[in-house]
């Protein structure tokens, strides 16, 4: 399984800088959630403006919580765009899918 490349978007994982009190996400946590075999996948992401990104909601064992991961495949590279601790709506989607 190809995992997202976060090299160009690490700033989007540092949530507490942009949103006071939010949880920063480590790339390893985001990749664990992305690789969760029980993940809920929305392709395309229902909140995507372009219709090209994918939303994956999965569990990270290391973080011990659900993480929503946004990715985009472009020219054979899977880019990690953003990730955050899943909200109530995404948590419900995960529970319904798994």
Task: Compile the SSE list and pairings.
Layout: H1 15-18, H2 27-34, E1 40-42, E2 54-60, E3 65-74, E4 77-85, H3 88-97
Antiparallel strand pairs: 1-2, 2-3, 3-4
Question: What does it look like?
Answer:
With 98 residues, the protein is α+β, with helices and mostly antiparallel strands. The chain has one domain (10-91). Helix content is 22%, strand content 30%. The chain has 3 helices and 4 strands. It has helices at 15-18, 27-34, 88-97, and strands at residues 40-42, 54-60, 65-74, 77-85. The chain is globular and about 35 Å long.
Summarize the structure.
This protein has 98 residues and is an alpha+beta fold. The chain contains three helices and four strands, in the order ααββββα. The mean pLDDT is 92.
What strand order characterises the main sheet? 1-2-3-4
* Major sheet attributes: 4 strands, antiparallel
Tally of strands: 4
What share of residues are in beta strands? 25-35%
Number of helices: 3
Order of helices and strands: HHEEEEH
List keywords for this structure.
four-stranded antiparallel sheet; 3 helices
């Amino acid at each position: 399984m190809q995992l997202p490349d976060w090299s160009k978007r690490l700033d989007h994982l540092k949530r507490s800088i942009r949103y006071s009190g939010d949880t920063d996400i480590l790339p390893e946590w985001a990749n664990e959630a992305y690789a969760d075999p029980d993940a809920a996948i929305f392709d395309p992401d229902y909140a995507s403006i372009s219709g090209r990104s994918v939303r994956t909601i999965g569990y990270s064992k290391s973080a011990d919580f659900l993480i929503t991961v946004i990715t985009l495949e472009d020219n054979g590279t899977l880019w990690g765009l953003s990730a955050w601790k899943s909200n109530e709506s995404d948590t419900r989607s995960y529970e319904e899918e798994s």
